[in-house]
Design a protein that fits this description.
The chain has four helices and two strands, in the order ααββαα. 49% of the residues lie in helices and 15% in strands. It has two domains: 28 residues; 49 residues, no CATH class. The protein is rod-shaped and about 90 Å long.
Length: 109
């Protein structure tokens, strides 16, 4: 095969990027760095441990669910209350009792 004159010299030289290509490459690098930062933050943060005397748990109901987090007097009042067993708040009652036991508060029977 016959190549054009100077073909090998052009292939060996590094191609210069134009302005738009440089901007796109930098923008792509910034987006990738932001995604990595968000992924690391979401994996390392969150509700890992709960302070003593605090109640924190997730619960489900018939129409959805939620999260509960209370500390101090509010947590003691919540643990002292007796939600009904069964029915639509059965998951709430069980989750509350387990959270009260973990928080070492009375009412987590």
């Amino acid at each position: 095969m016959v190549y054009a004159p100077g073909h090998f010299r052009q292939v060996a030289q590094r191609r210069q990027r134009r302005g738009r290509e440089r901007v796109a490459a930098r923008l792509g690098g910034l987006v990738a760095a932001a995604l990595v930062t968000v992924a690391i933050f979401s994996l390392t943060s969150g509700s890992g441990t709960v302070a003593r005397g605090c109640v924190s748990f997730d619960y489900t109901t018939m129409i959805g669910g939620g999260q509960m987090h209370r500390c101090g007097a509010q947590a003691r009042t919540l643990c002292a209350s007796r939600p009904s067993r069964g029915g639509i708040d059965g998951s709430f009652s069980a989750a509350l009792q387990a959270a009260c036991r973990r928080a070492h508060l009375p009412g987590g029977h």
